[in-house]
Amino acid sequence: MRAEVQKELEQPSSRQHIRRLFIIAYPVMLSHLGHIAVGVADSMMVGQLGALPLAAVSLANSIFVLALMFGIGISIGLTPLVAAADGQGQVGRITRLLKHSLLINIISGLLLFLLLMAVIPFLYALDQPAAVVELATPYLWVVGASLLPFMLFQGYKQLIEGLGHTRQAMVITLLANGVNVGLNYLLIFGKLGFPEMGLVGAGWATLFSRVFMAAMMAAYFYRSRLFAAYRNATKGFKKKIIRKLLSLGVPMGFQYVFEVGAFSGAAIMVGWIGAKALAAHQIALNLASVSYMIASGFAAAATVRVGNQLGQKNYASMQQAGFISFGIGLLIMLFFALSFIAGQHFFPSLYIDDEEVIEIAATLLVIAAFFQLSDGVQVVGLGTLRALEDVKVPTLITLIAYWVIGLPGGYLLAFHAGLGVQGIWWGLLCGLTVAAVFLSWRFWRLSNRYQR
Q: Residue 4 domain-assigned?
């Protein structure tokens, strides 16, 4: 990789940037898609049990995803530091960063799991249907335990991707998805002599698949010659490195929580409307999450590319890489927007055969089509700013966009303007648009400063 980077020390062309971005991006996009595909597979297969279990998955995942995304944010703090160190040829620093990141990830995974368990008794206080909460509780216990192996997987994954090697995580994630789907079939429906566990079976399938992911990624790191130079870690831990990783990871974790938390808050509000509305919300959110994770994967590639150029002090190239990332992200989400409109009734029918749920989900997918564009811009904005180690202002932007504008706006539109579940989604669209505008402006401003 470094030999190819050296050829680009002079100002690379747009074609070179696009080529490098896609070489890095497509495995990351598929890998990120694989993470969300676990939830999609659970929802599709649990949906065959009826609207009530599907609503329970929606409630449980709306809580679980907050912990999951905060953990991802914590772990991603490693990537821009590795990308910059790789641009400068600092092998020893990369080794130390990995060691400290693994420690942080393991502790974070345990704390997030304990936090989830502490939240479970309060699910009834969210004014959700009692039957939904009863089904969601044991599922949340089991799927929550998957945070521990998942965070271990993330530690190795973020290092490897920061070095520009992205295909391996993709392959492992796709294999794990196969494990998850196969176990779903066996454990949800009780096939081939396995017990019929229903919704809880989907949770166990997720846990086992993430243990598989962690084991495979660790084995790849310690066996591949590509990473031999990064396995000789020094003894002990340094507070300075831990603080540096946390100074990036914690704000990024909150960025994810503020955005995903708005959608979780939306799920709770939808639950006040009814179980069928919540099931439809889960379907539409599942589909929107697919496009989001693909855009998020591309944003991760933008982080690597912009961070690498920053490490080389090639500031004009750094800005160019960022702007090209915005453009490609917008085109990717335009494709999904058109797909949602064209398949607004077809896609929900893959989850459930309840006509009322399908009709509600179809109206939500039309709204989701509009916010695909804003979603693509804002997630790439976070990725490019992450490469510049700018995390505090973007965190404030996401807080205001989703919790001051998006969620309150959705509440007013739903329950005061009489728009129901559609009003909640229109409010989310407003929040995403505000975030997109200010994050892209922030990157333009900061990248100009580097060239003065």
A: no
- By percentage, how much of the chain surpasses pLDDT 90? 28
For the segment 308-354, what is each residue's pLDDT rounded down to a tens digit? 778 778 888 888 888 888 988 888 899 999 999 999 999 888 888 88
Query: Do residues 185 and 45 make contact, with C-beta atoms less than 8 angstroms apart?
Result: yes
Per-residue pLDDT of 196-211, as tens digits, reads 888 889 889 989 999 9
297 part of a folded domain = yes
Tokens representing 131? 């039957």
417 C-beta neighbours (distance < 10 Å), count: 12
**CA Rg value for the chain:** 21
Alpha-carbon span 182 to 205, nearest angstrom? 8
Q: How many domains does the chain have?
A: 1
> If we measure between CA atoms, which residue out of 181, 61, 45 comes closest to residue 132?
61
- Distance from C-alpha of 184 to C-alpha of 200, rounded to nearest angstrom: 10
Nearest alpha-carbon partner for 56 in 144, 172, 136, 141: 136
> CA of 128: how far to CAs of 106, 125, 137, in Å?
33, 8, 12
Q: Name the token pair of 64.
A: 């679980």
Structure tokens that stand for 54 in this block: 């599907």
